[in-house]
Design brief:
Blueprint (H helix, E strand, L loop, with lengths): L7 E4 L8 H15 L6 H20 L5 H15 L6 H15 L9 H8 L4 E6 L3 H10 L8 E4 H4 L6 H10 L7 E5 L2 H10 L3 E5 L11 E3 L10
Parallel strand pairs: 1-2, 1-4, 2-3, 4-5, 5-6
Length: 229
């Protein structure tokens, strides 16, 4: 569908190639146990996951800082679970989470296969709202960093998706134009609507089971990319 026009493929990282929820769950299982936090991991994640999603939305909208994101998502979770966690343990867990997250490197099914499929014919890039040090480790430790020519994160850009500047910066660094580029990501707001507003083609990898829409084509597995590229 886009084979005749696209030369550059931009991917989001978390929830698109790198299985954030699975790796995050394994990280919490490790650090809660190691720090003797007596909470059932399933109950913890049931509360934490939507809270984390809400705080990341606020972070994208510049309503909270990185430090507040990391502290408040845990504080709010413990409060909702009625678990008495001190500021010391919350700050410790916040630090341990970041230090351990990239140790787990589960990718979505077909991630490596699709990167191998695309690499000979397209220049591949990453645009992510994640933090520079963490995202670099995720890419390196999961052995996919070598597939990408340009990697732009929100700390480098100074803004977050869907801000048009981060897409413009990525296009400039990749030495390409919007009408030759496609963005593939999981977030309708940040990846799809953000990229479309900057003139890129888009493909929505709907990992969150969001409602159907007409903004672009929707896929539910990475191997479906072969239908379009």
């Amino acid at each position: 569908m886009y084979k005749e026009v696209v030369t550059d493929v931009f991917f989001d990282l978390d929830h698109t190639l790198w299985d954030f929820e699975k790796n995050s769950a394994l990280t919490f299982q490790k650090i809660l146990s190691e720090n003797s936090v007596d909470i059932d991991i399933k109950e913890f994640l049931k509360v934490y996951v939507p809270i984390n999603f809400q705080y990341w939305k606020m972070f994208r909208e510049e309503k909270i800082s990185k430090e507040n994101l990391r502290y408040q998502r845990l504080k709010t979770t413990f409060n909702k679970l009625e678990y008495n966690a001190s500021d010391n343990i919350i700050n410790l867990l916040s630090s341990e989470y970041i230090n351990n997250l990239s140790l787990f490197n589960n990718l979505f099914p077909c991630a490596l296969e699709i990167l191998e499929y695309l690499k000979p014919n397209y220049k591949l890039h990453i645009i992510t709202n994640g933090f520079h040090d963490v995202q670099e480790r995720k890419l390196r430790n999961s052995n996919i960093d070598g597939y990408f020519n340009v990697i732009v994160n929100s700390e480098i850009a100074g803004v977050k998706k869907p801000n048009p500047y981060i897409f413009e910066l990525a296009l400039k660094k990749a030495n390409t134009t919007a009408n030759k580029s496609i963005m593939i990501g999981d977030s309708l707001e940040a990846d799809i609507l953000g990229a479309k507003a900057s003139g890129l083609y888009t493909l929505h990898f709907n990992t969150h089971q969001e409602e159907l829409h007409n903004h672009c084509s929707i896929i539910h597995s990475l191997d479906e990319i072969k239908k379009y590229l």
